[in-house]
Amino acid sequence: MSFLQILWFVLIGVLFAGFFFLDGFDYGVGMAVETLAYNEKEKSQVIETIGPVWDGNEVWLITAGGAMFASFPYWYATLFSGYYLILLLILFGLIIRGVSFEFRAQSPEYRKPFWDAMLALGSLIAVFFLGVMFISMIKGMPIDANGNMKAQFFDYFNWFSIVGGVALVLLTYLHGLNYITLKTKGPISDRARNYAQALYWVLYVGEVIFALLLLFQTDFLRVHPILTWVCLILIVGFSVAAHICTFSDKQGLAFTFSGLTLVSLVALIFCGLFPRVMISSISSSYDLMIQSASSSNYTLVIMTIATVILVPCILAYTIWAYWIFRKRIEMPRVGDGY
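Structure tokens predicted for Cytochrome d ubiquinol oxidase, subunit II:
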């Protein structure tokens, strides 16, 4: 296994971590439109918090998929063919979520509730099935000696993957509530903080159940015991830190810690997988390994050069976008933009 192969495995993990940190609160805000806001004015206020940045955040997901395709084509082929239906559902959620922003802005008042519901539903679908995909993947899927995955219904949907999907929905929802608290003023901000203070108690229960299932349903503790425990402690620790910050009204820190909780979850998955990229439930000899699933050294060198040039541009654009739209949303505006 070469340095470049390890580097690109880590970089793909970083891209997914960036996606869940930045786009995670997008999904949470999308779900909060139907569960937090009481009327159309408040819904417009909530949507306006992510209106300028949501599409830029999704670049991280596209980049992670593209990087996987180029650097680990065998991983990409097995994942995208084996999870075809799950990925189709994720894409369906992303589409109805994406179009709801534009259609809502152009619709008359009586049709806005429909697009509000589509935004919430699309956010929920995308996050839940992302959780199902990643958690079922670390449990192990029926991958044969040729790298083909022929899974049945209960390979995708089992107690572990469903708990993982629900936990990811709750994590992103809390991340969204912390973002709304940070980005708005008035009753909606206070309500988001109150919701977060109550829901973190539910999250703790989910984290304990998830940790127990992880220990019994995967080989993470046997393969990487120290890293597994470190990541689990970080997940719980960042959740507690975010919860404490919601009580002390440290809004920026609460948002940061809830984002780091998601980053720790991604770290747990990638640390547990290493040096594999996919786990076979048929036989460990059929696991897809970093070394055998990667592109040629020449391809990885070209990709590394391109990354060194392009990543600073992406980071600069992201920072600039958040800086331009840094003001809190004070006045609900109906029929104006988002």
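Residues 132 and 331 are 38 Å apart (CA to CA).
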